[in-house]
Specification:
binds magnesium ion, TIM Barrel, globular, 40% helix, 2 domains, 359 residues, 16 strands, alpha/beta
Length: 359
Amino acid sequence: MKITGVDVAAYKFPTPEPEADGTLQWDATTAVVARVHAGEVTGVGWTYGSPATTGIVQHHLVGQVVGKDAGDITACYEAMRRNCRNLGSKGLVMQAISAVDVALWDLKARLHSMSLPALLGSVREGVPVYGSGGFTTMTDDQLAEQIAGWRDIGCTAMKIKVGESWGGNVARDLARVRQLREQSGEGVEIMVDANGGYSRGQALRVGVALDELGVVWFEEPVSSDDIDGLGVLRGELRCDVTAGEYAADVYEVEGLCGVLDCIQLDATRCGGYTGFLRGAAIAAAHNLEVSAHCAPALHAPVTAATANLRHIEFFADHARLEPQLFDGVPVVSDGLIRANTTPGHGLALSPDADRWKTE
Ligand SMILES: [Mg+2]
């Protein structure tokens, strides 16, 4: 079956109030949704980022996939990537490719009347998720409410943001970690994400304090561009040092594997399900697990088919947004997101999605 068309649109979801991590503030999340058609059958994929991604799909990717066989995902992927050589193949370009790639996998599975976990080769039915949010803008009461919500759905690991104001408020960072420790409950693993907000020396000193608090995961203690810095911290700290959410391709994943304890992969940024599976294979060759960054409903099918998978990030903004944008979003219970058994990835654009559409 030939690919007959591609359409793309952006949907903007305001956050309930302004949010921030250590190094960025935002008041909305934009999802860019690509739909790939083969006759009457449609596959859906998406990425999170800028509405400008729609232009990349329209101008540089549609022409590379229309007319190809819907089963030839590798051919489509290579054609898209090669066509964007002069634009730079990472960042926005790879986010656009990621959205189309996910749509292609969804389409292929639907054309075969198979679920994506079955098509990819499932290794588990339920995928562990960890609660993620804990923005630096939240009050103690708001954080307590979020922690209680994660407990209600059975999360056995929880992560908050630290590195407030580019490392300008370490005392509050550590106080909030202590709050999470106290309110998360017995046996829950404590994780933090500094989003690259600390300098190397500061990250080391904070990391020693986090080790004393029993934190098991220190994400982007320094910028993930500071490969040497990540390696130094990994050698000094007991907690796992992690990063990878911006990795766009196999080269960037390979570059991180020598300095991290767990590789974060984001299928909406690293080349869709194709890129996720390739990244996980590289991590496996370094005896490393991978953790899916954000987009829990999108990651459920591919993580169900990834052997060296630790967990999926159940990120507050995306967990709130996905059920508004799509029908068929799996429910989390007992700390697990269940992989779908319905055709494709099991998600379809909601008939109500148009109210969020933006330019
Ligand atoms: Mg992060």
